[in-house]
Amino acid sequence: xxxxxxxxxxxxxxxxxxxxxxxxxxxxxxxxxxxxxxxxxxxxxxxxxxxxxxxxxxxxxxxxxxxxxxxxxxxxxxxxxxxxxxxxxxxxxxxxxxxxxxxxxxxxxxxxxxxxxxxxxxxxxxxxxxxxxxxxxxxxxxxxxxxxxxxxxxxxxxxxxxxxxxxxxxxxxxxxxxxxxxxxxxxxxxxxxxxxxxxxxxxxxxxxxxxxxxxxxxxxxxxxxxxxxxxxxxxxxxxxxxxxxxxxxxxxxxxxxxxxxxxxxxxxxxxxxxxxxxxxxxxxxxxxxxxxxxxxxxxxxxxxxxxxxxxxxxxxxxxxxxxxxxxxxxxxxxxxxxxxxxxxxxxxxxxxxxxxxxxx
Amino acid sequence: xxxxxxxxxxxxxxxxxxxxxxxxxxxxxxxxxxxxxxxxxxxxxxxxxxxxxxxxxxxxxxxxxxxxxxxxxxxxxxxxxxxxxxxxxxxxxxxxxxxxxxxxxxxxxxxxxxxxxxxxxxxxxxxxxxxxxxxxxxxxxxxxxxxxxxxxxxxxxxxxxxxxxxxxxxxxxxxxxxxxxxxx
Lengths: 360, 184
Description:
The structure holds 2 protein chains of 2 kinds. Chain A has helices at 9-19, 35-43, 57-68, 80-96, 123-127, 145-162, 172-176, 221-238, 258-273, 291-301, 314-322, 347-359, and strands at 4-8, 24-27, 50-53, 74-78, 100-106, 138-140, 165-171, 178-182, 242-245, 252-255, 278-283, 285-287, 304-307, 328-331. By secondary structure, chain A is an alpha/beta fold. Chain A has a 7-stranded mixed beta sheet, sandwiched between helices. In chain A, strands 9-11-10-13-14 form a 5-stranded mixed beta sheet, with helices on both faces. In chain A, strands 1-8 form a two-stranded antiparallel ribbon. Chain A is globular. Chain B is an alpha/beta fold. In chain B, helix 1 (16-27) packs across helix 5, helix 3 packs across helix 4 and helix 4 crosses helix 6. The longest helix of chain B is centred in the last third of the chain and has 19 residues, at 162-180. Chain B is globular. The chains are: A alpha/beta, B alpha/beta. The A-B interface holds A 4, 6, 114, 116-117, 173, 176-180, 259, 262-269, 337-338, 340-342, 344, 346-349 and B 21, 24-25, 28, 33-45, 60-67.
């Protein structure tokens, strides 16, 4: 077995990126993700990499854009307000099909929100495209230290495979929680050569100019869009990921992602001990969304409870998947134990909600 | 199945998070799964600090728990908080040097450890947290004291750290010894 160490989720992001061969990080500090740039600033110079602290998140994302054009593995990380500043650049990355990994350690919003505060209030932003123009980024939502480390590696692979931005989304709880991780290298198979990458003047025959505004190419506007539409369709076919826990034999299916999925898993165990037939469905890819699998699981269970630390965002995709065939209930941020900072939806609160639903 | 959960609550600066992290660090030597979650939002109840530690042989579900089976209270307000939240049948370890209140609930067991006093006797009030951690480990036998000492060795390396390392080790053993001979 490879080395096992106790690290925070934020640290697992940085280590997973380096494990995937990422040597270039452009970012700006913001709570609760600052441990990621901190670690990168310390470690990347040691391995011949580059860490640049930009003037703002608007700057970071265009450094990612420029770096990504060279075909190297590039990333940035931020938290919610910073992601909003990156939205324009994200749209450009998608337009130009530049591989990059963007990590969002969510803090409560809207607006400036608060850094020392967990929340899952960016679901709509990350799944529906942060920026303008109607594009998609694959969105991975890990739920443990090990999975953060592993999915960071997958994120770089998928960014290269499909040529575009891939997002990894965590939050305060996942970022601060320390768990043992095994430092393993994952192999996802071969990737195509990056023939499009800028290689500089020294390599004669290499690319020196590569991208122009997509709409002005001779292939035409519609052909450009059809190519992207087909790519997104292929991602939907091939890359849907999810995990089920006791979900094939339950009469209430809990749907949750990220930290809420961990809390819900605890609630499933507590509920089972009380004789409640609970199951958990955890989307790992928030986009592409596991539409069919959720619809099937929901029909089998007969009712659904979405648990998310937000106003109710994931629930929209769950409702769209279930299409009204079974009732979909929601336990949102009002399930927190504390009205101030540090409020958390505990597994015990999820069980209270289940008991209420059972009485209906 | 071996499973231990502990919440530690107190004031920031007294090593609330430190002993939680140390326990998890030492715990990964014995358990396949361990988890440390610090919750220390500055707005929370006037700068108070709390953390959760779980050690388990099987995968850990929720990283947070509302009603812990075991807790350490390092201040009076932490005692109130934990007493209200604890699961029935649980154990609450209290620093009785700085908390004069007594636990009113009869369905939980309180252990009053004069941790700060013991730490002062050993040479430093800052080691009160280690006295409490030693008491916890002796009470639950979740891990061996040796593993905690090893984790301390890893954290506090070098000649300059030696006095504080020795103080911490003595405090751990003092707490364990006090708990071993505890009479309510």
